[in-house]
Design brief:
The complex is a heterodimer.
Chain A (H helix, E strand, L loop, with lengths): L1 E5 L2 E3 L21 E3 L1 H17 L2 E8 L4 H10 L3 E6 L8 H12 L6 E5 L10 H9 L3 E10 L3 E7 L5 E7 L2 E5 L11 H7 L3 E6 L42 H14 L5
Parallel strand pairs in A: 1-4, 1-6, 4-5, 5-11, 6-10, 7-10
Antiparallel strand pairs in A: 2-3, 7-8, 8-9
Chain B lengths: L17 H6 L29 H4 L21 H28 L7 H7 L17 H14 L1 H21 L2 H12 L5 E4 L15 E5 L2 E12 L6 E9 L17 E7 L5 E2 L14 E12 L11 H35 L1 E2 L2 E2 L4 H29 L5 H26 L10 H13 L4 H13 L6
Parallel strand pairs in B: 1-4, 2-4
Antiparallel strand pairs in B: 2-3, 3-7, 4-5, 6-7, 8-9
Classes of the chains: A alpha/beta, B alpha+beta.
């Protein structure tokens, strides 16, 4: 089976983030980058499925030049080949623009299964995989903890709240977003790192912003985002907490009153 | 909640809301006991269940981020960075959780041999045809740095296996020896040790007393070696001995030096007359095996001579390889100590403020960071020289001498920042500090490297 894994290149964990002068994004110059951690679980799951069922694992990313490193890391872990949908436009892209770019790039691939991490560690929309499914016309499920490929179908275990699970079956092809921590992600071996140099990493140029694109009506060309990020700010630190007295109903009433008074509810 | 696939006739219906789902045993189950790794959750509003999220982001592992004040990372190739990062993660996940216990128990973490081999650490800069990774020397150095960030004993194991046993077999061995030993050693199926130093001949190896006497079908070894890392657990020892009785057949070494030439021999575990008792009660490198090797009329076959070895320069070539790794490894120890001191200085409160806010502490940290950074640049450039085939052994002496001394100073200063806590097993600094006492002295003492440099500067040898 052909399994596609969507990977994102994000600032390394525990990076010291600073807001860029524009105020619209973080300062990227002094950052180091890594594969989005949730995507490593998706890649590991794909490699395990390949070991069990055979086939091919294709890693794909949409991002600026630097994002090729995420794919090299994916190839070093064991992916068979990779596609880099390259363009600076994807650095600022929202989930919709990224999903449209990925969908365009994947149409010719006819994957049996598309896996993505549950969300990205930088923007955290948790929407790219879901939108990609819609654009590819595939069923999807999110927060997946177990994947079992059956004949033409996939049985998945999905995490719900408070420690409960849900089992679902989907027809293939399908898109799954993989919950973090469901497997032990393998190490890239040193031999794997060297072998990755010889694997196929195809660069596909993203259409320039403003050019005719293939996005659904009303969303503009691929790579342009229907949403705009207008500013970033660090959350203000406060040590103040307020506890509403009374039973649940009374406390809820007090909370409602307070939120309305503070203009948080309209 | 999205449900995408059409339900099968025999499938229990899936509830659309939590209260219903909770009532249906067929489709939901408790995760009790299954959740041992922190998970991420989607933010609310995208169809993800809202209740899961509170626990998700908690308890992310604190991982070692490295010390890279001069952005050396940007000079590395993708392969070099990936090699560093995969070993760094391995040390975080596999070495750090067990190393202090092994150090206290004075035991080598043998459970790490197999995973280190799977990673490809042993002889990582040797060619792929022998089952090795074929990395360049900068990548190899970064691997040594990361291993020693964990513990000098773990790095020593890898150094001996790769640079002191696999390298001489690769450089001086026959095709048969290479094909037999290198893939096994890369896979961790065979462990090696290197016997040069003797009880009475450390800095002066030319005076060694171990003798290999020519016999009808091989060699007879007599003598002893000391301070041999991995000795007791080794399957094969590369032993250096002076030959005797080989004048007639001209087997006196490739340099034609004839009788008394130092040559290398492969001595296999279990050979009669060969023993490798472990040396105990060390205060340093406690998570590493240190042994004595004894040879008592130990007969070895002619095929176990390293045919291309000849003269003292052969073992010294091996030591140059290992020492190159030490120059990097010392950076790793220092990075670990510096990192721990910085973290501690931010958290430790005295006089109502973090001690990192005091000028004395800041001066120490600034000095440590400066020295670590200089040592890293030295190691990196040495690696580039080695990859270009331009590295001179005296340059390795300079780097080993500087970087190990630097690491000792950083470890000691870090200990002062940690105060009394610095002497406990809760922290790493004193383990590194004690380990470095050995590293300072092995593979050419600090003092001998000083004289090597002195001779290179003046042209006058000070030790003969």
């Amino acid at each position: 089976m052909k399994i596609v894994v969507c990977i994102k290149h994000v600032p390394a964990r525990d990076s010291r983030l600073r807001i860029a002068q524009s105020g619209e994004w973080i300062e990227e110059r002094d950052l180091s980058w890594e594969i989005n951690e949730p995507d490593t679980y998706a890649l590991e799951e794909a490699l395990r499925l390949r070991e069990k069922h055979g086939g091919e694992v294709l890693a794909i990313t949409a991002g600026p030049d630097r994002a090729a490193e995420a794919l090299k890391r994916g190839l070093a872990m064991g992916a068979d080949r990779a596609i880099h949908l390259a363009g600076d436009v994807f650095n600022a892209a929202d989930a919709n623009a990224t999903a449209r770019g990925l969908a365009d790039a994947l149409r010719g691939e006819a994957p049996d299964l598309v896996l993505a991490g549950v969300q990205s560690d930088d923007k955290g929309y948790a929407a790219t995989g879901v939108m990609l499914a819609e654009l590819l016309g595939m069923p999807h499920s999110t927060l997946i903890m177990e994947v079992e490929v059956l004949d033409g179908r996939v049985k998945v275990k999905r995490e719900m709240e408070s420690g409960w699970f849900e089992w679902l079956e989907l027809p293939l092809p399908a898109v799954l977003t993989i919950q973090s921590g469901i497997n032990q992600v393998r190490y890239s071996t040193l031999k794997g790192i060297m072998a990755a140099k010889k694997k196929d990493l195809r660069r596909v140029e993203a259409p320039a912003a403003g050019s005719a694109g293939t996005g659904p009506a009303g969303t503009g060309p691929a790579g342009t985002s229907p949403t705009a990020l207008h500013g970033l700010a660090f959350p203000s630190r406060t040590s103040r907490a307020e506890i509403f007295d009374g039973d649940g109903k009374a406390a809820a009433g007090s909370l409602w009153e307070r939120l309305r008074r503070d203009g948080k509810l309209r | 909640m999205t449900r995408s696939g059409p339900p099968k006739a025999d499938e229990t219906p899936v509830s659309q809301t939590l209260p219903e789902a909770l009532q249906s045993d067929a489709v939901v189950e408790s995760r009790e006991g299954e959740r041992d790794v922190p998970r991420h959750a989607a933010p609310a509003g995208n169809g993800a269940p809202a209740g899961v999220q509170a626990t998700q982001r908690a308890a992310r592992r604190v991982t070692f981020q490295g010390v890279d004040y001069y952005d050396l990372s940007s000079l590395l190739t993708d392969e070099q960075r990936m090699a560093r990062d995969t070993v760094r993660r391995f040390v975080d996940e596999r070495v750090m959780p067990v190393i202090e216990e092994h150090y206290q128990a004075a035991s080598f973490p043998r459970e790490l041999i197999e995973p280190m081999a799977e990673l490809g650490v042993f002889g990582a800069n040797l060619p792929e045809e022998y089952g090795c990774a074929g990395l360049d020397n900068v990548a190899y150095g970064l691997i040594m740095q990361e291993l020693e960030r964990g513990d000098s004993g773990v790095r020593s194991f890898a150094s001996v296996q790769g640079a002191l046993v696999m390298y001489p077999i690769f450089a001086f061995g026959s095709d048969e020896q290479k094909r037999h030993w290198l893939p096994r050693m890369a896979a961790g199926q065979a462990i090696g040790c290197f016997g040069l130093t003797e009880p009475d001949f450390g800095s002066n190896p030319a005076g060694m007393r171990t003798v290999a006497e020519r016999t009808a079908d091989g060699w007879r070894l007599n003598g002893s070696k000391m301070w041999i890392t991995n000795g007791t657990i080794a399957d094969v020892a590369v032993v250096w001995a002076k030959t005797r009785g080989d004048e007639a057949d001209g087997a006196g070494g490739v340099d034609g030096a004839g009788v008394g030439t130092i040559r290398g021999f492969l001595v296999e575990r279990g050979t009669p007359g060969y023993a490798a008792p472990e040396m105990h009660r060390k205060h340093s490198l406690r998570a590493s095996v240190t042994s004595e090797l004894t040879f008592d009329d130990c007969e070895i076959p002619a095929a176990n001579l390293l045919p291309e070895s000849g003269g003292l320069k052969s073992p010294l070539m091996c030591l140059t390889q290992a020492r190159y790794g030490i120059a990097w490894g010392a950076c790793g120890s220092a990075m670990a100590c510096y990192d721990e001191a910085v973290r501690y200085s931010r958290e430790r409160i005295q006089f109502d403020r973090p001690i990192g806010g005091f000028q004395l502490t800041q001066a120490k940290l600034a000095e440590m960071l400066t020295e670590v950074t200089k040592a890293q640049l030295l190691a990196y450039h040495l690696g580039r020289l080695k990859d270009d085939g331009k590295m001179k052994p005296v340059q390795v002496s300079l780097a080993k001498r500087n970087n190990v001394h630097m690491a000792m100073e950083v470890a000691r200063t870090a200990r002062t920042i940690l105060g009394a806590n610095g002497i406990t097993s809760e922290y790493q600094v004193m383990r590194h500090m004690n380990n470095l006492e050995s590293v300072y002295t092995y593979e050419g003492t600090h003092e001998i490297h000083t004289l090597v440099l002195g001779q290179d500067i003046t042209g006058i040898p000070a030790y003969v």
